[in-house]
Amino acid sequence: MARQLDEQMSACFEEGRALRVLDVGLGRGVQALRLARAGHEVTGLQSDPDLRELFEKDLAEEPEEIGARIRLVAGGSEDTGAHFLPGTFDVVLCHGGLTQARDPGTTLAGLARVLDRGGLLSLLIRNDAALAMHPGRSGDWDAALAALDFSVRTGSAASGGGALRLETLTRGLAGLGTPLRQWYGVGIFGRDDLPAEEDKAERMLAAEERAGRDEPYRSVAAMLHICGVRG
Fold first, then answer.
1. How many Cβ atoms from other residues are within 10 Å of residue 135's Cβ?
2. How far does CA 159 lie from the centroid of its chain?
3. Where in this chain does the record put each Methyltransferase type domain (predicted)?
4. Domains of the chain
5. What does the DSSP 8-state code read for residue 83?
C-alpha cells in the first residue's frame, strides 16, 4: 500500500515539498516513520496508550532529526475536531480507524475538515462486499457462509448498513468536497506475510500491486484503499 500512497502524493503535490501529515490511529507507526524519514512533518493520533508507548520506544531509536518531525497526540479517529483546526494538514491517513468508528459518517466529515485545499485523504477500510473470499479460499465454509449472510444483511440502505462500502463512501466523499480520486484493492491474494526469499517477496508485491488496480481483482480484495482530494 505504500506504493499506492506514494503514487497519489506525487500526483497531488510537487516533488520535494515537505507536507503536513496526520496519521489517525497510526498503530505501530510504520507509515508515520516512513513519511518522516522522507522529510514530512507527521502528527500521529492514537488512542491506545500501549501502542503510543511502543511507538515512542521505536521513535527513540530513530535519528534526532526524524524524531523532531513527529508529534504524538492522544486521541482517536473521532477526535480530529477537538485537536486540530480546519485545513491544518496536506495529507490525512486513516488506515483502519473509520471501520472501527461508532459513527463513520461524522468521523469521515472530521477527517475531511482538517484537510487543506488540494489535500489528500487516504482511507483503508474492510471490503464488506467480499468478506467471504478469505474463509472461502481457506476452506472454512461455515465462516464463508456466515460472511455471505452478513454481506446481504448490511449491504443495502434499507438495512441501515453499507456505510463503509465503496459506493456509499464515494457519495459521502463527494458531499464533503473531497471527491474520490482513485481506489485500490489490498490483500487480494490472501497472504499477510511476505515470503522469506527476497525474489519471491518482490514477485508477490508486484502481483498485488498490479491486481490492486484492475477489475475484477480489486473488487474482491480483503481491504480497499480509497483516496480522495479536497476541492
1. 18
2. 26
3. 22-122
4. 2-127+160-229 (3.40.50.150)
5. H
Give the helix ranges, DSSP H, for 22-178. 30-37, 49-60, 64-67, 80-83, 97-100, 104-113, 133-137, 141-154, 166-175
The CA distance from 144 to 81, in Å, is 39
Nearest-CA neighbor of 47 among 2, 88, 80, 69?
Answer: 80
Q: What is the pLDDT along the chain (231 residues), one digit of tens a residue?
A: 888 999 999 999 999 999 999 999 998 899 999 999 999 999 999 999 999 999 999 999 999 999 999 999 999 999 999 999 999 999 999 998 888 888 999 999 999 999 999 999 999 999 988 889 888 988 999 999 998 888 776 664 433 445 678 999 999 999 999 999 999 999 998 666 777 788 888 898 899 999 999 999 999 999 999 999 999
Question: Whole-angstrom Cα distance, residue 72 to residue 86?
Answer: 19
The answer to whether 49 and 74 have CB atoms below 8 angstroms apart is yes
Amino acid at 199: D
Rounded Cα gap, residues 117 and 231, in angstroms: 6
CA within 13 Å, CB half, 87:
4
Amino acid (one-letter) located at 231? G
